[in-house]
Structures are given as C-alpha cells and as structure tokens.
Amino acid sequence: MYVWIWRHLPGGLAGKVAGSVLLLAAAAAFLFLVVFPAVEPRLPFNDVTVDPSSLRAGPQAFGE
Amino acid sequence: MLAKALRGVGQTLITFGVVILFFCAYELWFTGLETRAEQKKGKAELLEEWAAPAPTATTAPNAPSAPAVELGDGLAILRIPRIGRDYAKVVFEGVRMSDLKRGPGHYPGTALPGQVGNFVVSGHRTTYGAPFGQQEELALGDAIVVETRDRWFTYRVVLEEIVSPRDVAVILPVPRKPGARPTTALLTMTTCHPKYSARQRLITTAELVATEMKTAGRLPAALQG
Description:
heterodimer, A: 0% strand, B: alpha+beta, Sortase, Chain: A, 8-stranded mixed beta barrel
C-alpha cells in the first residue's frame, strides 16, 4: 500500500516527500481528533471514581 | 505472490504499532493540552465570579461557605504544597467524563468545601493533565488547601489507602460508617491505581484543621514560606 501511494504521489522526489508528510499529518489529525476521542471512553484506564453508577441512587445517600 | 502477501501483512502490523504509539501520545500528552486550556479558563471564570458580590449572601454561621453549583461549574481551587508551590487546580462540579477532562471533579451530593461531612474529589492520574498524578506523594499530615469565594480551608492528610473501585464506603460522610452522622469535615481524593491501570483506587483522606476568611495579601499558614 505504501509503495503504491509513493508511486502515485506527483512532483518528483520533493513533491513525493511533501505529499507523504501531508498524508501523514492528515492521518494523525484524523486519529487524534476523531478516532481516539471516540475509542477512549471504551477503555477502562481513565476511571478514577469509586463506582459512579451507585451515585445515581441519589445524593441523599452521600450528602449531609 | 507469497512475498507480496507477507509484505502486506508486515506493513499492516507496523501500521498498527504506529497507531498504538500515537494513541499513547494522545493519552499522555494531547489530552493534557485540552485540560490545560480548560483549567486556565475555569480559573479565570472562578476568580471573576468571586470578585463579584455573592448572589445570595448568607450570614448564617452554619451555612455552607460555597453555594451549591451546577454540574460543570467551577467550585473551588485546590492547592497542595507538597506537590508544588504553584499547584492550584480548579475543581469542577461533577465526576462525569466531561467534567474530569477539565480537572478534578467534586462528587455531586457530597459535602462542600469546609462543610461537615466528606468533600470528595476525583482526578485523573496519568491523562488529561494528570491533576492527581502525584497524589501518592502525599504523606500523613500534609496540607491540602481549598480556596472558595471567601475562605481558605486547610485540611491535613489523615489516611491513605488502596481500595476496590466498588468500595463506595470511602466517600460516605463518615467513611466506612453508612448512616453515621458526621461530626468532622473531611476531604477525600480518589484516583486510579496502580498508575496506568484502573484495577484499584488510591484514596487519600484529610481532615479540616483550619478555616480562615480571605483577606487581601494573606495566605493561610500552609501556603506560606
């Protein structure tokens, strides 16, 4: 796939390098801004609270 | 044919590897950028709000010093000299994922700063600016200072423990005593444990030792020096 992309990038060596950098940046932006934020909530290692689900029982159980 | 197929497999695996590395960079670095901006904004908003006269000024001696806030609002500023002289994090109301992305979050329904009961705050340990990344460094007796509109509350660490994520007893008004009537004002910090995992929770509990009215140019003893 990478070979195919490299072959089809226009503009000689300089153009190919510039095109590669651009494609890489676009792929990274897509991952950082779209894919990772969507995947993250499904992963467990950001849980820092103690069983938040039980808090829905109502604030009375914890407040005073 | 086989060589070509193998090359395809190899490229795919390398691509996956790079994506995973990118994900680590996202979690540990990129998420912090968002939090830093939110903290800056939240702090500015809170200071501006505090500078304005209180909307419903109450003079009752037992009234909570901070009025109840809406989910997502800034509530107080948390300072921990042990972590750093300039460590000051805005605590937001709520422990939804969207609240904790912005900084430490206060469990709705638990006590407010300085109130008798348990003021419970959760924060990320490794991601989103890692506000509680150094919670483990707190030692017994260390100061945790909470700044509200008009007061400084100084708590001292009295207990550190590692518990199961289901152990909600640690955030009760009187920890571990369901239904008991609280007589002291506590502060409880929770974060994930071990680092980079969510298997357990690190719990730090502190007890209120001093309440001071804010006066211009005077910091509470724990923040001096």
